[in-house]
Design a protein that fits this description.
Elements: H1 6-25, H2 29-47, H3 52-71, H4 74-109, H5 124-140, H6 148-156, H7 158-161, H8 169-172, H9 178-181, H10 186-218, H11 225-256, H12 274-278, H13 283-297, H14 304-322, H15 326-347, H16 354-373, H17 377-387, H18 393-406, H19 408-423, H20 427-432, H21 438-453
Helix pairs in contact: 1-2, 2-6, 3-4, 3-5, 4-5, 10-11, 10-19, 10-21, 11-16, 11-19, 13-14, 14-15, 15-16, 16-17
Amino acid sequence: MIFSSYKFIFLFFPIVFAVYALLRKFEKLNAMKVWLIIASLFFYGFGDIRFFPILLFTALFNFVISRAVQKGKKPVKQLAMALGVAENLGLLFYFKYSNFFLENVNRVIGTNFMLEGIILPLGISFYTFQLISYLADSYSGDAKGYSFIDYMVFVTFFPQLIVGPVVTHDELIPQLSGENLLRFDKNNIMLGVLLFSIGCFKKIVIADPLITHASAYYNGDVSGIIRAWSAVLAYTFAYYFDFSGYIDMALGLGRFFNIELPQNFNSPYKARNFADFWRRWNMTVSQFLNDNIFKNIFHFGNGVIKLIFATLITFIVSGIWHGAGWHYIAWGVANGVLVCFANIMTLYRKKLPFPLAWGLTFFFSVLVRVLFDSHNTAQALEVYKVMFTPAAGAELMSQWSAYIADNKLIIGLLVFSAIIIFGFKNSNEIAESFKPKAYWAVFSALLMACSLFFMGQVSNFLYFQF
């Protein structure tokens, strides 16, 4: 089920919140939590019932393992931790990477192995990180004593189950106290409405048309320098609004239940270098990789070589996490190299003037997006070739005239996207200074009305594929 759909907005969520509010009125705290678990599992199963047993099994398995990690003696803790990590990564590898692995084996030894009918379960990349993080904190002693009900709310809470943010136990479970859940907070609900409306507008009105335009280019003929740049820019802005729109909706929905989910998106295209960019884009996944990969390789006081090595390994893992394909690995390496440059400049206290630093960061973020959005490395190289092969003046003018004639809406959306991204506060900044006012209600109503008008065919979020 998609947040930006009639079924979710007019059926699922009103029922979930109405029952939740009724239970809160009678101060049935455990019943409220159980209802959230039931609603979340239904939400997940409605997306594709085939994936429901996988989520339920891995959630229950990790709870049992976490108990052994928390309470067992050292050999038991170590064995349980190994089993837990193996189960989580094993499922992720099987569903996401097994055929990619077999394809490469086939190329090397000339075989034709292939696993038929494998479909990537919704949200597995995100909830796997969340479960591994919980196991790691159980092993260190930071996570212990949580009830099964609180644990299941933490794992399954539907606003963040599919595309994050990746939440740690200490960010969510303490908010499940009676003191927090039983209070009625109209400010939170008003903020929730505003954030959900903003996110819905981003997804439906801005992101979806840009996705349609860009995907048509990548799924067809990739010729034409104007078409190439417009498609790459369209995906550049589409991913921004599609992903940040989901996060806005997730954070807004959390507020209805007095649960504040962590920020996961903070104007990455305003970054001055790539290290700053990755502190702003998919922030919770970046934090997970930093805590579990980078910090286990690089420690304070290590030299530049170790810093470069740790950064590259972290971003190679990030590339692999995002998708099974060599172009994703190349994308990870490219980002790693750019972050290395940023880290080295910071280490040696070198700074570029702000306009140049921002311009270069945005330009290279557009370029590396080609690796991310292409179907494979061969297509990425072809797109780069088209983008940077000069066209004759007459040919360029002809392409430009034809493009303008056929894509006035897309041109307008690209300009509108740039104005919103670079000229206005982001959702986090709006939430920080939010105070219930009539104009916010009007603004939310206008955004929601526009979104509902254009809702039509439901489209998945881009990050569903990861």
